[in-house]
Design brief:
- Helix content is 74%, strand content 0%.
- The two termini are 35 Å apart.
- It has 9 helices and no strands.
- It is an all-alpha fold.
């Protein structure tokens, strides 16, 4: 008989917390609304750690591979997998939306729109590509664009790969930073049950 590890317990706890949160929201709506900051706080904690985790992971991954051709092959496979799964998810959404018609019959009049709804502007392909390039090296980590962090991480990773032996001290420092960033993320994930319940 296999014992459950902490990750399994976390998954089960989150599911129980979601059911508990939904039950509280149905029975005591006022209490459910009061618990909303728990969900927002948890999401903010996770978002806070995304940039350093992505940067360190990509830099260590790219910088540790000896040949640039291998990086290109892995990147191509990752991009192909991303496109395939995105298409699959889109197909599921279209099928479910056209067959089940979720939300049909709901009376949404009088409800306040979601905060920030309708404020997004359509961007052209050129604007999207140019938006990946951050204003400065460090502005990518203070903004909300994950693609900018990914762009900087790829540049640094390829640079360390080209430096060879001279880049090893920097690579060691990035690995230590990755270890430092992963610990707060792990601590934040332990708050997933109350965060999911509040959301």
């Amino acid at each position: 008989k296999q014992s459950w590890d902490k990750h399994t317990w976390l998954y089960v706890s989150v599911i129980i917390a979601v059911v508990l949160g939904a039950t509280i929201g149905l029975i005591w709506p006022e209490v459910g609304i009061a618990l909303e900051p728990l969900g927002k706080g948890f999401v903010s904690l996770i978002k806070m750690m995304i940039a350093p985790i992505i940067f360190c992971t990509i830099v260590v991954g790219v910088g540790s591979i000896a040949k640039a051709a291998t990086v290109g092959k892995i990147g191509g496979l990752a991009l192909g997998y991303f496109m395939l799964m995105s298409t699959f998810a889109l197909a599921i959404g279209l099928v479910v939306g056209n067959i089940i018609h979720p939300g049909e019959g709901l009376n949404m009049t009088g409800l306040a729109p979601y905060e920030g709804a309708g404020t997004a502007e359509a961007k052209s392909t050129t604007e999207f590509i140019l938006g990946i390039i951050p204003t400065t090296f460090f502005s990518a980590f203070t903004g909300e664009s994950v693609l900018q962090v990914l762009f900087i991480a790829l540049l640094v990773g390829f640079t360390l790969q080209g430096l060879g032996k001279r880049g090893e001290p920097i690579m060691f420092a990035v690995k230590q930073l990755q270890l430092l960033a992963s610990r707060p993320l792990g601590m934040s994930l332990s708050l997933a049950p109350p965060g999911a319940s509040g959301a």
